[in-house]
Amino acid sequence: MQISARRHDSTTIFDVSGDIDFANSREVRQSVLREVCEGRTSRVVVNLSQVRYIDSSGVASLIEGLKASRDLGSRFILIGLSTSAREVLQLSRLIKVFEIYDNEEQALAS
Amino acid sequence: MLELYSNPRLLSVVRGAVERLTETLGFPAAQCRSITRAVDEAVSNVVRHAYGNRPDQPIAMYFRRAQRGRQGEIEHGLEILLCDRGPAVDVGKLQGRPLEEIRPGGLGLHFIRQAMDTVEFTRKGPTNRLRLVKYLARASSNGR
């Protein structure tokens, strides 16, 4: 799994690739929470288009990012969900809890 | 049979093996994903809870074809037995969290139960055993 961050105006975009599982979800959590909690940007976008698999610990990391964002008044957006990632969010009844767009353009225009 | 250590880095190996196996056995794509997810979550639970994240503890996985008769028809499937040598599991504590709660944690068991037809925890001697079974769509029992 690899995660990198880039800026677009007032938005931080995390590009994640590979599988997010128990071996590496902590890294996702730490990266996202650091960005959210330091309040560098008003909107955090997590690009999951290159993520084929995400487990419950990965979902937990995303929930933590969402909660921290809400607490600090910023937005937390997911884009590019794979079939597997979408299934996991549906199974956990979180699909409507997250703000989700198909791609980066839609997220930035929102 | 698959023997491995409780190193989280091996989860991707487990997923790869289960995904190929379920595809070979003819499970639909969505079930291949859900079974793979269930096994991944089960092994993650062993690493976290049975072994306290120690990466060098033994895990054994046994795979075999399963079969059951139902309403005059035979269902074929896959049985997976996951064994660890951690402390005895308190089955009463094996509860996923209510899905209405939006908080981290507690989803793994939900994914396992959602995916599998049978989820059984037992303790045999020093071994925790988790038995998972998933059946394919029915085939006729009269040889057709």
Folded structure, characterized:
The complex is a heterodimer of chains A (110) and B (144). With 110 residues, chain A is α/β, with parallel strands linked by helices. Chain A is 41% helix and 27% strand. Chain A has helices at residues 25-37, 56-72, 83-91, 104-109; strands spanning 2-8, 11-17, 43-50, 75-79, 99-101. In chain A, strands 1-2-3-4-5 form a 5-stranded mixed sheet. In chain A, a hairpin with a 2-residue loop joins strand 1 (2-8) and strand 2 (11-17). The mean pLDDT of chain A is 93. Chain B has 144 residues and is of the alpha+beta class. Chain B has one domain: Histidine kinase-like ATPase, C-terminal domain (Heat Shock Protein 90, 2-Layer Sandwich), CATH 3.30.565.10. In chain B, strands 1, 2, 3, 4, 5 and 6 form a 6-stranded antiparallel sheet that branches. In chain B, helix 1 (11-24) runs antiparallel to helix 2 (29-50) and helix 2 packs across helix 3 (108-115). Chain A binds chain B through residues 19, 21-23, 53, 55-57, 59-61, 63-64, 67, 83-84, 87-88, 91-94, 97, and chain B through 8-9, 11-12, 15, 30, 33-34, 37, 40-41, 44, 47-48, 99-100, 102-105, 107-108, 110-111, 114.
In short:
The complex is a heterodimer of chains A (110) and B (144). Chain A is α/β, with parallel strands linked by helices and 110 residues long.
